[in-house]
Amino acid sequence: MPDSSTSAIDGRRVVAIGIVAIVGILLAAAVLLFLNLPDANAFNARVERIFVENDGLTSNAEIKLLEILAQSGTSFSDVLTSYRMVIFVLLVFSTALLVAALVFLVTIIALNRRMSEIERAGIQVRSLTISRAENTVALNDMAFKLTPAAIETLSVLAEARMDDDVLSGVEIEAMISGKPATDCDEAAGATRIKRLRDALGNQIVSELLIKNISRKGYMLAIDKGVIRMT
User: Fold this and answer.
1) Terminal CA-to-CA distance of the chain, rounded, Å?
2) What DSSP line would sit under 198-216, residue for residue?
3) What does the longest C-alpha to C-alpha distance in the chain come to?
4) Which residues of 111-125 are buried (b: 16+ CB within 10 A; e: fewer)?
5) CA Rg, the chain, in Å?
């Protein structure tokens, strides 16, 4: 099983490399974009050139036209400057979104890997205390209130685990009902297991705690030394 600290280091390394790659790509794109944007003073330079090359324009209408052109150049410069700021903000926002998406992706992958490790290793049970009198079961720090039928099913599985036995559905039904095994069927025992899992509630806990061994039956996937019956 991979060491959890090694997995965490690998995850941080992937995040760091991903962030550097994202920032580098967007920074390169920003530089190319800003280099190819027209100069904000290009229009003003053209207007100034018109003033210089046409000093013979002296009528009021011609001077008014040149003033309008000059004002248009200033407006164009202001608009282009605002566009640059908008592009910069959008690039920063895009960088933040991509970095967040990368972090979430790595987190989800790490959680899925952890869940796979748990499924392979089984649930780590430090103590399992079954109280038939109170119809309760304490699993590590979690306490469950079960029905009498569910407690009986769990008790039978616990006793079988302490004897290193695997019980089929027929055997479970026979031990709980007191009937001969010939009068019981597999479906009845499987139904009791399903009801026990439903009573435990947490799907991950119930699926990992109660193992279904193909063609053999059911057993508790825990160390028999942690089981206590009261």
Assistant:
1) 36
2) HHH--HHHHHHHEEEETTT
3) 121
4) eeeeeeeeeeeebeb
5) 37
- For the stretch 148-204, pLDDT in tens is 888 888 888 888 888 888 888 888 888 888 888 888 888 888 888 888 888 777 655
Angle formed at CA 139 by CA 134 and CA 143, multiple of 5 degrees: 50
How much is the pTM?
A: 0.47
Q: What is the spatial distance between Cα 180 and Cα 166, in angstroms, rounded to a whole number? A: 18
Q: How do the domains of the chain map onto residue ranges? A: 4-121, 128-229
Torsion-angle region of residue 140: left (phi > 0), alpha (psi -120 to 50) or beta?
A: left
Report which of 154, 147, 199, 145 is spatially closest to residue 172, judged by C-alpha positions. Answer: 154
Which candidate, 66, 185, 63, 205, places its Cα nearest to that of 141? 205
Give the relative orientation of helices 148-162 and 186-200 as an angle to the nearest 10 degrees: 110
pLDDT in tens, 210-226: 777 877 888 877 777 77
Crossing angle, helix 169-177 and helix 186-200, to 10 degrees? 80
* Alpha carbons 61 and 131: distance in angstroms, whole number: 103
Q: How many residues does the chain have?
A: 230
For domain 128-229, say whether CATH 2.60.40.420 is its number.
no
User: Nearest CA to 213 among 181, 166, 172?
Assistant: 166
